[in-house]
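FORM 7B: Structural annotation worksheet

SECTION A. Query
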Amino acid sequence: MVVERFEVKETFPTHIDVPHPATTRKGSRTHHASVAVGGTFDHLHSGHKLLLSMTALVLDQTVGPGSGSKPSITVGITGDELLKDKKFREHLEGWHQRQAAVQNFLLAFLGEDAPSEQNCSTRELEQGRQQRRVYNLLSSGIAIQYVEIFDAFGPTITDETISALVLSGETRAGGKAVNEKRGEKGWVPLDIFEVDVLDSSADGGDTGKQQSQDFQNKISSTAIRQRIEERSRTAD
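SECTION B. Predicted structure
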C-alpha cells in the first residue's frame, strides 16, 4: 500500500498536479484502472469538488479494450438513513439530489455533456434494505458507478478490482480500516491518495493549523445547512 498526500490551497486550482499512476513510488500499482471515493456530498461544495477532481486525475484513462476492463470510478454516497442524526438535518439533500450533483460535476470535469448510457437500479440487501445505484458509461469509455452506502466501507470491501481510494485528511483512519478489511480477505490493499485543503493565509505552527481548520469548517456541509437555517429564520 502507498499513501500519497497532497496539500491544496483554498484558491482551488483548475488543474492539480499529481503523479501519473504509471510513475508512483515503489510498492504501488503502476496503473489505477478502478478508483473509489466516498462521502455524503451534501450541498456539493469546493471540498467535495476537490476530492472528485483528484479521483478523476488518479484514474488511468489509458486502459484500453485489450485489457479486458474499462477505466472506472466508484462513488460511494451515504444513504439518507445514516444522516438522520446530522445537524440541521431538515436541510439535508436527498440521495438522488446529491447523486445528481456529483454526476453533473464529474461529467463536466471529464468534458462530457451527458453519459452515452445510464442505468438506475436498486438491489435488495440484508434486513430488507434497498441499495440505490446509478451507472454511467461515457463516450470516452470511462464507467462511473454511484452507489448508496450504509457504512464506512461501501464497495471498497466488496469489489476487489478497486485499487485506489481518494480521501481527505480527516478520514485517514477510514482508509486504514478499509485496508484492514481487505487484508482479512486476502486482497491487495488500496493505494491511498489523501487530499488536505489548506487556508492559503495560514502560516505554520498551531496558529496556522487553527486557521486551516477554521477554513475547512466554513466549507463544510454542516456550515452550509446552518447558514440555510439562519436565513430561513431571518425570513420568518
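SECTION C. Observations
Residues 160 and 192 are 15 Å apart (CA to CA). The mean pLDDT is 78.

SECTION D. Sign-off
Analyst initials: ____
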